[in-house]
């Protein structure tokens, strides 16, 4: 095992070992290309090339860092030449900088290359100035090389997720890739002696799930580094389970990015802002952290320091050792997705193995007492179906579901669903509503529910658990709202159950509710109930059911600039909520 200061080139250019290495390297490239062909021809939705040797350090004319052929770079070239792709996203989460991939594509605007890596002000291998945040590509490729240098060890789940939400995903959605390639190195996971990071295996399931909403779900992962066998094997399993559509386990530890991570995120956003509208609109400033680019002085110290580091490490190690037990305690539901739709919606085209529920809970009438509108016979049947589906989700018999509700009773139905969920043991209920919907007047402010209304008249934060955000429907405004507000709140809150409710005049375009629902599946562990008012059912129920069942959401199409008033509202809410919800932060505290 090489130390950070040891040479990492290939040795032994002659003899049986070299011949075996060459043969294995050819097989690794071949397997990667076969995977890309299978995904792009529709034979499979996604996949993992479980290959060695790795490839991301190898350069055009030189092997490097135990890498012979650059598997992912060759795969990207292959996808362009054979399949005619014009936009490919490469995500490199190995703990070492994949300088080989960067050098191959640094002037190519058809390849967006994102790499996070242990850097420590160039004190960590490969000791390159080219690994820093302000190296953004050359010529026409400027802005298509995205380096996020970690200047401390000990980065954990919150730091990795924050990097995706605030750096990678805004650029990726604006880029709109046709294929996602992952340089999947797991030396960035806990216990790895090279990385010395604290991210637990389930974090890689969440990262994979976030990438699956891109490129129509066409994701090809290729194994890179990883040198702690238990951590490596469990991290790979977590990623494969996500690729298969299994629910993501909850993330362990506090969802609070450390200061060093925020400094790196701030620096890369500033470096990339001149090239990406999404970052310009989010208020990225050209101010670069002096700590990120300074190569002088002693190496940085650990964050968090002292007792806090030991506590964070203990939490992460405990999470790793108990992960298999956790998976046994939270097995996949017998039914992945169920629907409770009225007979009028029977013509909808739904995935064939979605369960159609027609039952009704016996307690329906008891729950209608506070609401006169629900006491009518025509309202009792759909309410009973909704509660029956909700009970199946709460009991673990069904993973997720979608139900239609008459528009006049949607507010009352939502109130009943919230009260019933909390009475049945839900500890953290995240409710995301859109359209003409009112917050239940007696909704407690005790932390057991987080209410977020999208499409309100004005930006308000009555408390950290009751938030309203106006939105006028452009692609850019919607994406900024989801990535900069909804998902940071969701990951900070880590709900047991998420409700997504589409009311009248919600103003969202066709693919937008599907994308929102798909992205919220990760923080909720797949436990989502979608309520749609009946008039919107023909337009949205089909695609929402498909997304709940694991299919990728449709593309949003070209990026469009948000309205200025939407951006002002978003900035106001972030300023109000950042002290309580640390996942909203994109700059380090001064």
From TrEMBL:
Pfam families: Hist_deacetyl (PF00850)
Residue span(s) of domain Histone deacetylase: 19-243
Highest taxon in the source lineage: Eukaryota
Protein name (Swiss-Prot/TrEMBL): Polyamine deacetylase HDAC10 isoform X1
């Amino acid at each position: 095992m090489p130390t950070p200061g040891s040479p990492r080139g290939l040795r032994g250019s002659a003899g049986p070992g070299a011949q075996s290495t060459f043969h294995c390297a050819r097989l690794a490239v071949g397997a990667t290309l076969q995977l890309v062909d299978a995904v792009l021809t529709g034979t499979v939705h996604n996949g993992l090339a479980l290959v060695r040797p790795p490839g991301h350090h190898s350069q055009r004319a030189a092997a490097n860092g135990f890498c012979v052929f650059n598997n992912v770079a060759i795969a990207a070239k292959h996808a362009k030449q054979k399949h005619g792709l014009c936009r490919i996203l490469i995500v490199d989460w190995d703990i070492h900088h994949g300088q080989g991939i960067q050098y191959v594509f640094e002037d190519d605007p058809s390849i967006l290359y994102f790499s996070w890596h242990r850097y420590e002000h160039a004190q960590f291998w490969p000791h390159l100035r080219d690994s820093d945040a302000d190296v953004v590509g050359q010529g026409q490729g400027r802005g298509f090389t995205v380096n996020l240098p970690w200047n401390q060890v000990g980065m954990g789940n919150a730091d990795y997720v924050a990097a995706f939400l605030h750096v990678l995903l805004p650029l990726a959605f604006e880029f709109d890739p046709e294929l996602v390639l992952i340089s999947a190195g797991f030396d960035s996971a806990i216990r790895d002696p090279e990385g010395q990071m604290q991210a637990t295996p389930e974090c890689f399931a969440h990262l994979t799930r976030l990438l699956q909403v891109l490129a129509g779900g066409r994701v090809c992962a290729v194994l890179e580094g990883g040198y702690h066998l238990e951590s490596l094997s469990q991290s790979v399993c977590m990623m494969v389970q996500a690729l298969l559509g299994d629910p993501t386990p909850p993330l362990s530890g506090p969802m609070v990015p450390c200061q060093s991570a925020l400094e790196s995120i701030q620096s890369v956003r500033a470096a990339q802002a001149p090239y990406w509208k999404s970052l310009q609109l989010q208020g990225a400033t050209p101010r670069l952290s002096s700590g990120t680019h300074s190569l002088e002085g002693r190496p940085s110290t650990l964050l968090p320091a002292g007792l806090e580091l030991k506590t964070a490490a203990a939490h992460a190690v405990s999470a790793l050792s108990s992960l298999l037990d956790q998976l046994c305690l939270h097995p996949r539901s017998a039914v992945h997705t169920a629907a409770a739709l009225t007979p009028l919606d029977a013509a909808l085209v739904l995935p064939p193995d979605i369960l159609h529920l027609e039952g009704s809970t016996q307690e329906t009438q008891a729950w209608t007492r506070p609401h006169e509108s629900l006491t009518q016979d025509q309202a009792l049947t759909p309410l009973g179906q909704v509660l029956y589906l909700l009970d199946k989700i709460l009991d673990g018999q069904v993973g997720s579901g979608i139900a239609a509700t008459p528009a006049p009773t949607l507010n009352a139905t939502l109130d009943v669903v919230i009260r019933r969920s909390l009475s049945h043991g839900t500890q953290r209920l995240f409710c995301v509503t859109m359209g003409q919907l009112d917050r239940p007047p007696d909704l407690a402010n005790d932390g057991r529910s987080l209410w977020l209304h999208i499409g309100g008249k004005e930006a308000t934060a009555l408390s950290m658990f009751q938030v309203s955000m106006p939105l006028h429907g452009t692609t850019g405004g919607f994406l900024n709202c989801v990535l900069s507000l909804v998902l940071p709140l969701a990951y900070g809150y880590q709900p047991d159950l998420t409700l997504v409710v589409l009311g009248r005049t919600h103003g969202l375009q066709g693919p937008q509710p599907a994308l929102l629902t798909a992205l919220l599946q990760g923080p909720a562990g797949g436990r989502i109930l979608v309520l749609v008012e009946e008039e919107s059912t023909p337009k949205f129920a089909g695609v929402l059911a498909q997304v709940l069942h694991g299919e990728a959401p449709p593309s949003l199409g070209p990026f469009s600039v948000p309205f200025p008033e939407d951006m002002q509202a978003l900035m106001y809410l972030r300023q109000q909520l950042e002290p309580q919800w640390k996942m909203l932060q994109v700059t380090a505290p001064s």
